[in-house]
Structures are given as structure tokens and as C-alpha cells.
Write a structure and sequence with these properties.
The complex is a heterotrimer of chains A (about 650), B (about 110) and C (about 200). Chain A is mostly helical and about 650 residues long. Chain A is built from 28 helices and five strands. The relative contact order of chain A is 0.08. The chains are: A mainly alpha (about 650), B mainly alpha (about 110), C mainly alpha (about 200).
Chain lengths: ~650, ~110, ~200
């Protein structure tokens, strides 16, 4: 069997080093963390920073192209026929690696300040380094099994980090929920791997994609469906999204790195990587695009009903990833990946900014108790402002270009309904992000108002309990070390979109020219320029509505009453997040419990134990029966002999011997 | 066939022999006196002998006579042994109850 | 032909009497009648030698043996069937099974072709009774016994020897061996006292 290798085969020590360094860092931090104390933070950040430098130095190797192979391939060994393991650094994985290590390094530095004083400081950085290693395994593998290994390990890292404060029952439950839902996705990917190996007898991407045309359409749809189940679980798409809002129980840097910038985008990476498979099956593309679109709009609607600042950002993440999935689902790979690129920056920015606020307000997370922070935390305001402008898609900020590419891409590939959904969702996004901005920063500070006046029913649930030893109950200005990464992130948040300016001649298009061969599509009815203008108008409309409700002078003055009104009159449907949690709980949790109870109460004692018991009893009964014949009486024995003889005679009379 | 050799049809002899045989069987099972049991066994032997003699005449083959003779001999030996056992049981137990000789019980 | 039916009735009646008589002596008498009728039946079947053998051996030796044992064991109360009946209601099932066996046997024979075939004619032709060399005569029987069936004859002799040994072992005399006249007198005295003691019980 001819083996198709993606990428130029060779030996790339930088690639190996950038992949293995975070693992080394994690091991050292696990082993010597308590001794290292404060140094642990700098050590962890340094490791990831070194990986970033090595990734940047591998730019040339990653973008090289020779004889049809794009990127660098480092073989790691084979198991038996068809199971070849290796690393692949091509434009797609190079982009992901840069984001993982770059944004990861910034967040590591930020965490030195955020997690200062925490009792398990070193353990945090060990887990973060481990996560970076796992994510790199996922994106750098050149075969499905390596990808699955990385997939599982990032799930594990997420479990560690969500449940980092394990003395909080809510965090433990959230970590478990995230892990269990991700296992469902793991099963999907495993089934897809089984199907692929059964058909192609190899686990390598190159082999699978080369044979993509020879799959039967049902097989290909099944493979794509199973892969998408995995992507949906990891990327929090409907209906496997319920773990993401709960995952905000973890520390804010965790939310920034894992649940905004990198791990949740693994699904997008998977679909973009397996683009050759999806391109051959339009049914699968329709499914993925539709699910992405539905998630985008549902996430946006739910974001309008949240009061916890991190949950607002969580639902916005879900919605934005819906955009990405929609993009790569319909075939607009460059657009979806572009949105991942810009989203990583502005979402990390938003989370880190939220972290600044939370840290300053001594773990207050409910926006109803914030307000007026533009005077108290001006730098946080600037950071959040840039992030909000980017996510709304206001030009010239980065989000405008990438979101535009996604929305236009749906129309180019012939999905007018998804086009409409994309535009409407952009408006809703603008509404709730501006709502966040206005309620948090404008007006008067509401921290001293009685929580019940604001409509908060359980004030003790707001924010995390006191986890920092040194910073008890008073807020203070954030350490400078937390401000630096935020400041650095402002730059790409604002300017990253310019890489995509210029359509097919943009640097972005050139970067991916060899990876995603553009197919010639008929020009849709609405041009890209018109799309941009329509989207912008819808966004401005959403922002205007938010301003009217929360931003005007009158609104700011009556903020307390308005917020209480809104909290009390929130419809139950929105408050319970469309009852997805309740539905999953009913079907799977209660269902499994009922099944287990049924088996333990009826099947086990009667059927299984009963079978064993009855076997023993019937053996005894049979023995007693045969024993009753042994009377010792001669006459009885004679009688039995006669009975036997009569039976023989009957047999020969009826059936006959040799007639 | 046999209408020239036998007074009546051969089937009648077979039926008579069978009836006598099963009467002997019932006697063995029902009676509790060991001597009567042994006599019932003699009835069974003689039923078989009758069958041998009838077939010998029907087939003009004196092997049946030989076998009947041997059956008589063996029946004599068996009756002797059986009566010796009865005597031996009487000597030890002073009464002979067939139902009591049940040491094979269980 | 009438002989067959008459003798058949006698055979069945005497067998019935044997198995249902109250006293064993009555059963012996029934058995005697049975044997004599059987001998007559053999005569109708040209089995003269066997008929005589039947009378001599069966009714002359075996039945006498039965009578001796009855006499031996009946000094006093008849010691048979003195315990409780362990199989009280066995008669009905036994009769049912016997009738079933009987029915199946006759059905089987009726279906088969046994009664139709005639075997090889090996013996001498039939002839008047008493004539030498005919079927059923002593001459014919003796020739067959000592030539063709010599081995079964010898084995039967062996069986008889085994029977004798068995009887002696099981029911033999337990009188101790007396070498001298003095010992013999002592033995006789012991036996007398034992009988007296046995009679007093």
C-alpha cells in the first residue's frame, strides 16, 4: 500500500523540541513545584515562551512547499503496517501552534499575578504546561490516533484545571460534567477512526485523505458524523454544550486559555484538518453548518440573559465558535480559521480583562454588583472596550474582517439561511456585549447596594469563595504583571484583522493557498461589500438597543431598579438555558439511574441470582428424586426392571427394529 | 406354513407364552413370600420354554429342544440357590421378610 | 387342536392359582398342575423327551425342593411376610405395566413376519411317537446335544456344579468337625441342647 505523507519528510529538531518542552516543564513542576514556589510561575511561562520562539523559528519549515507536499513532517516511529506516527507542521497546525504557545505564554505570565498567594501555585503552572503539551500533540499529529491522544489529554487537562479549586463542590461537579460530555465526543472520534482504519488500513491523515474519494457516501457520512460528534463535544456545540458555562468555575486564566482561545477550538481544527473528507460529502457539510449556525444564535440569545461576567463570556465563546464551525462546515475553511485566529486574541483579551475586574473586586463576578468601574479600573475598561469592539465586528477592529469572511462564505457556498442567521447573531452579539460593557463600567458603583435590591437571590453564590490567602476581603489595584499581557494583547485584537484585508490577495489567503485549494464558486447575489455594510448596520442597531436600555443617562440613574426588574422578570426559559441541562439530566442521568435500579432490583435477584440459585436447587431436587428410587426393596427394583422391559417392548413394537 | 406342523397357529403359542410370562412378573412384584416369588420366576422360565418348544416344532429345528433343556437345567440351579438364600436369611433373622432385606437402601 | 385350548386354560388357571394362593403349599400344588399341563403341551408339539424331562426335573426335583424348604422353615408359625408391607399399593401399577407390556408384545408380533417364515428344516422329519430317530425323540435329541451343542452342555454342567457349591456355602451344615468319637458326642450334645433351647423360645 502506497503511503501518502503530508508534508516534506525530514528531521526537524525545533519541532520536536517545541512539542516536548511543555511536557518537560509539566514534569519538573509536578516534581519540584512546592520547592520552586514563586519561580514556578516564571519557569512555566518561560517554557511556553521558549516553545513559542521555536514555533516562530519553524515558520520556514512550516510553510515550505515542495512537489505537492506542504509543511514539515517529522516521523516518530511505526507500530505495525498502517500505524505510522509522526508530527506535521503545515500552515494549519503552524497557525494553531503559534496561537497556543503565544497566547499561552501571555496567559502564563498573567497567571503569575492572578494566582499569587494561592496555596497550589506551582500545581497550576504544571497543569497549564501539561495542557499546552496536550494541545500541541493534538494539532501537531499527522495521524488520527495521535490526534485522539491529544484530544483525550486536553480533556484531562481541562478536568484538572476546572476542578483546580477542588474544595469547591461546584467546581468538582463542573469538572466531572465537562469530562463526561467530552468522553461522549471521544467515543465519536474513536468510531470514526475505526471506520477509517477499516476502509483505508492506515491512521495517517495523508492516506485517509488520498482515499477520500473512494469511500461510499454512507461510510463517508458516518465518518464525518462521528468526527463531528467529537468536535461538537469539545467545541461546545448544541446539544453537547452544557459543560462550557459550568466550566467557568475554574480560575479566569484557565477560562481564557482553554475555554476561549484554544481547547474549545479543537473541533474547528479537526474539521479544517479533515477538509478533504468533508468536501466529498455535502450532507455532512450541511449538518455541520446548521449545527454551527444554531449554536451561534442560541448562544447569543442565552448570553443576553446572564448576570455572571464569566458566563456572559462563556456563552459568547459558544456563539463565536458556532460561527467558526459554521464557516468550516459549509466549506469556508479560510473564513472559519480566520475567525478562530481573531477570536483567540479578543476572547483572551476579554477574559483577562474580566479577570482584572474580578481580582480587583475580591472575586465579585456578578455584573449587577459592579458599575462605575470606568473610574476605578480605567485600564481594564480600555482592554474590555477593545475586546467588545472586536467581537462586535466594528471595523477596523479584527473581528469585523473574520466574521465577515465567515458570513459571506456561507452565502458563497449556497446557504442563504445560515447567512441570515449569521447576520442576526452579529446583531445579538453586539447587544449583549455592549450590555456587559455598559452595566459593568458605566453608572455608579453598586457594590454597596443590598443584593436583594438588585434581584440577586443567592448572594453567596456570586463569585468564588476566598481562595487567596493574602488578599482577604478588600480589593486592590491589580499587579503590574497582570497588566502587561493584557496590554500586549490589545495590539492583535485591533490589528490582526488586517491580515485578511484584500480578499484573495490578502496575506491570509496566501498563507493558506496550498492548504485550502479554493474552489471556483459562482458569485452570489449579494456581494461581500454589501454583506459588510449590512452586518455593520445590524451590529450598530444591537449596540444602540443596548445603549438605550443601559447606557443613557436616565438608564444609568435608575440602574438598580432596572436591573432588579430585569432579574425578576427573566423568563424561565432563558433562566434555565432552554432546559438543555434539565433535558440531558432527565434522559441520561435519570435514565441511567432508572436502568441501573431496574437491573439491580428485578433482573439481578430474579434472573441472574435466580438462575444460579435455581440451578443449585434443581440439582438437589433431581438428586432427591433419583434417590427416592433407591429403596432397597427387591420388589421395587423388580418393578422398575419390568417397567424398563415394557418400554423396550413398546419401542420395538412402535418404532421397530429390523422388519 | 405351520398349519400342517402345529395344531393351531404359531401366534396363539406366542400369546399364551406372553400371558404366562407376565403373570409370573406380576407374581414376583406383588407377593411378599420369597418362596412364592421364586415360584413366579419358575413360571416365567416355563413360559419361555413353551415358546422354544413351539418354534422348534414350527421350524422343525431341534435347537429349540436343546435350549429348553438347558433352560430347565439352569432353572433348577437358580431355584436351588434362591432357596439356599432363603434358608440362610431365616437362620440369621428367624423370619424371612423380603421387604426387610433392604440393605441396598439409599 | 382342542388339546391346545384345554391345556391353555389349565395353564393359565394354575398360574393364577400359584401367584394368588394364601399358603405357599397351595402355590406349590398349583405349580405342579402347571408343570403337568405344560408337559402335555409339549407332547402335542412332538417334544416327547422334553415332556418327560419336564416332569422328572421340574415337578420331581424342583417342586420337591420347594416343599422341603417350606417344611424346614415352617416349624411353628410361618415366618414369611411378617413385617409391614413396604409397597402396599403396588398391585395395580404392576398389573397395568404387565398388561401394557403384553399388549405391545402381541402388537409387535402381529406386525412382524416371524409367524410367517419357516426356518430351515434341520431336524429329522416328524413321525409317530416312540419311533427312533424322528423329530423329538431321545435319539434325535441326544445326537444334537452331544455333537452340535456339546459346549453348552458342558457349560451347563459347570453351572450345576457352581449351584451345588453355592447351596452348600449358603445353607450348609454348620456342624463342627469332630475328629474323635468323644468330640462327636460333645457335638451331638450341643446340638440337642440348642434344639431344646430353640423350642422353648
Amino acid at each position: 500500500m502506497i503511503r501518502h505523507i503530508m508534508g516534506v519528510d525530514g528531521s526537524y529538531p525545533y519541532l520536536l523540541a517545541l512539542w516536548l518542552l511543555p511536557l518537560l516543564g509539566a514534569l519538573v513542576l509536578w516534581a519540584f513545584g512546592p520547592q520552586m514556589r514563586r519561580v514556578a510561575g516564571w519557569f512555566g511561562s518561560g517554557i511556553v515562551g521558549a516553545s513559542f520562539v521555536l514555533t516562530a523559528l519553524s515558520w520556514g519549515a512550516g510553510t515550505q512547499s515542495s512537489g505537492g507536499a506542504v509543511g514539515a513532517h517529522q516521523a516518530l516511529g511505526s507500530w505495525f503496517a498502517g500505524f505510522h506516527f509522526g508530527l506535521l507542521l503545515d500552515p494549519l497546525s503552524l497557525l494553531w501552534a503559534l496561537i497556543i504557545t503565544g497566547v499561552g505564554c501571555l496567559i502564563h505570565v498573567y497567571s503569575i499575578g492572578y494566582m499569587d498567594g494561592d496555596g497550589a501555585f506551582a500545581r497550576f503552572f504544571a497543569y497549564m504546561n501539561f495542557f499546552v503539551f496536550a494541545m500541541l500533540t493534538l494539532v501537531l499529529s499527522d495521524n488520527f490516533i495521535g490526534l485522539l491522544v491529544g484530544w483525550g489529554l486536553v480533556g484531562l487537562a481541562s478536568y484538572f484545571l476546572i476542578g483546580f479549586w477542588f474544595f469547591k463542590p461546584a467546581a468538582v461537579a463542573a469538572a466531572r460534567k465537562a469530562f463526561v460530555i467530552n468522553v461522549v465526543g471521544d467515543v465519536g472520534i474513536m468510531l470514526a477512526i475505526f471506520l477509517i482504519v477499516a476502509n483505508v488500513h492506515s491512521i495517517g491523515f495523508g492516506d485517509a485523505f488520498a482515499a477520500a474519494g473512494s469511500f461510499s457516501s454512507t461510510t463517508l457520512f458516518a465518518i464525518c458524523l462521528c468526527l463531528f460528534i467529537g468536535a461538537a463535544a469539545k467545541s461546545a456545540q448544541i446539544p453537547l454544550h452544557t459543560w462550557l458555562p459550568d466550566a467557568m468555575e475554574g480560575p479566569t486564566p484557565v477560562s481564557a486559555l482553554i475555554h476561549a482561545a484554544t481547547m474549545v477550538t479543537a473541533g474547528v481544527y479537526l474539521i479544517a484538518r479533515c477538509a478533504p473528507l468533508w468536501s466529498h460529502n455535502s450532507d455532512a457539510q450541511l449538518l455541520v453548518g446548521t449545527v454551527g449556525g444554531v449554536t451561534a444564535i442560541v448562544g447569543a440569545v442565552l448570553g443576553c440573559a446572564q448576570w455572571d461576567i464569566k458566563r456572559i463570556l462563556a456563552y459568547s465563546t459558544m456563539s463565536q465558535i458556532g460561527y467558526m464551525i459554521m464557516g468550516v462546515g459549509v466549506g469556508a475553511y479560510e473564513g472559519g480559521v480566520a475567525h478562530f485566529f481573531t477570536h483567540a486574541f479578543f476572547k483572551a483579551q476579554l477574559f483577562l480583562g474580566a479577570g482584572l475586574i474580578i481580582h480587583a473586586l475580591a472575586n465579585e463576578q456578578d455584573v449587577r454588583r459592579m458599575g462605575g468601574l470606568v473610574k476605578k479600573l480605567p485600564f481594564a475598561f480600555v482592554a474590555m472596550l477593545t475586546g467588545v469592539l472586536a467581537i462586535c465586528g466594528i471595523p477596523p477592529f479584527s473581528g469585523f474582517f473574520s466574521k465577515d469572511q465567515v458570513i459571506y462564505g456561507t452565502l458563497q457556498h449556497g446557504h442563504p439561511w445560515l447567512y441570515a442567521v449569521g447576520i442576526v447573531t452579529a446583531g445579538i452579539t453586539a447587544y449583549y456585549m455592549c450590555r456587559l460593557l455598559f452595566v459593568t463600567f458605566l453608572g455608579e458603583y453598586r457594590g454597596n447596594v443590598d443584593p436583594s435590591d438588585l434581584g440577586i437571590r443567592h448572594p453567596e453564590l456570586a463569585g468564588t469563595p476566598d481562595v487567596h490567602d493574602a488578599h482577604a476581603s478588600h480589593g486592590h489595584a491589580p499587579a503590574w504583571i497582570m497588566n502587561v499581557p493584557v496590554a500586549i494583547l490589545i495590539v492583535p485584537t485591533v490589528f490582526a484583522g488586517w491580515l485578511m484585508f484584500g480578499g484573495d490577495n490578502s496575506p491570509w489567503a496566501h498563507f493558506f493557498a496550498a492548504e485550502f485549494v479554493p474552489s471556483s464558486l459562482p458569485a452570489p447575489a449579494i456581494s461581500e461589500g454589501v454583506t459588510g455594510i449590512v452586518a455593520l448596520l445590524v451590529v450598530l442597531l444591537g449596540a444602540a438597543i443596548a445603549y438605550v436600555r443601559y447606557g443613557t443617562v436616565a438608564a444609568r440613574a435608575g440602574a438598580v431598579a432596572r436591573l432588579r426588574d430585569e432579574s425578576v422578570r427573566m423568563p424561565a426559559l432563558l433562566r434555565n438555558a432552554f432546559y438543555f441541562d434539565a433535558a440531558l439530566d432527565l434522559i441520561f442521568v435519570r435514565g441511567s439511574e432508572a436502568l441501573g435500579t431496574f437491573f439491580s432490583r428485578y433482573v439481578d435477584p430474579h434472573a441472574i441470582d435466580g438462575a444460579v440459585r435455581e440451578t443449585a436447587i434443581s440439582a438437589g431436587w433431581l438428586g432427591a428424586l433419583t434417590r427416592s428410587f433407591q429403596t432397597g426393596l427387591v420388589r421395587a427394583y423388580a418393578f422398575i426392571i419390568v417397567v424398563g422391559a415394557a418400554c423396550f417392548i413398546a419401542y420395538y413394537a412402535l418404532v421397530g427394529g429390523t422388519h | 406354513m405351520t398349519s400342517s406342523l402345529l395344531p393351531v397357529a404359531l401366534g396363539n403359542y406366542i400369546a399364551l407364552s406372553a400371558v404366562l410370562f407376565f403373570m409370573g412378573v406380576v407374581g414376583v412384584i406383588v407377593r411378599r413370600n420369597p418362596l412364592v416369588m421364586l415360584m413366579s420366576i419358575e413360571l416365567m422360565f416355563n413360559a419361555a420354554n413353551l415358546l422354544f418348544m413351539a418354534f422348534a416344532r414350527a421350524w422343525m429345528n431341534n435347537a429349540g429342544h436343546i435350549f429348553a433343556f438347558l433352560v430347565i437345567t439352569v432353572a433348577a440351579a437358580e431355584a436351588a440357590i434362591g432357596l439356599a438364600i432363603v434358608v440362610a436369611v431365616f437362620r440369621t433373622a428367624k423370619h424371612v421378610d423380603v421387604d426387610d432385606v433392604a440393605m441396598l437402601k439409599g | 387342536m382342542i388339546a391346545f385350548w384345554v391345556l391353555g386354560v389349565i395353564l393359565i388357571a394354575s398360574a393364577m392359582w400359584t401367584i394368588t394362593a394364601k399358603k405357599p403349599v397351595y402355590s406349590v400344588v398349583g405349580l405342579l398342575a402347571h408343570f403337568v399341563a405344560l408337559a402335555a403341551m409339549y407332547l402335542t408339539l412332538s417334544g416327547e423327551f422334553l415332556a418327560v424331562m419336564q416332569i422328572i426335573v421340574y415337578s420331581g426335583a424342583i417342586l420337591v425342593l420347594f416343599l422341603f424348604v417350606i417344611a424346614l422353615l415352617s416349624s411353628g408359625v410361618a415366618p414369611f411376610a411378617t413385617g409391614i408391607n413396604r409397597l402396599p399399593k403396588i398391585a395395580a401399577p404392576a398389573i397395568v405395566v404387565a398388561l401394557a407390556g403384553l399388549g405391545f408384545a402381541i402388537y409387535a408380533v402381529g406386525r412382524s413376519s416371524v409367524t410367517a417364515t419357516s426356518g430351515a428344516l434341520t431336524a429329522a422329519a416328524a413321525g409317530p411317537v416312540g419311533t427312533a430317530g424322528v423329530f423329538g425323540s431321545v435319539d434325535d435329541f441326544g445326537k444334537a446335544l452331544f455333537t452340535t451343542y456339546l459346549l453348552p452342555f458342558e457349560i451347563t454342567a459347570l453351572i450345576l456344579m457352581v449351584a451345588v457349591i453355592g447351596v452348600v456355602t449358603l445353607a450348609g451344615d454348620s456342624t463342627p468337625y469332630a475328629a474323635t468319637e468323644k468330640q462327636a458326642r460333645a457335638v451331638r450334645k450341643n446340638m440337642r441342647e440348642a434344639i431344646v433351647r430353640g423350642g422353648e423360645r
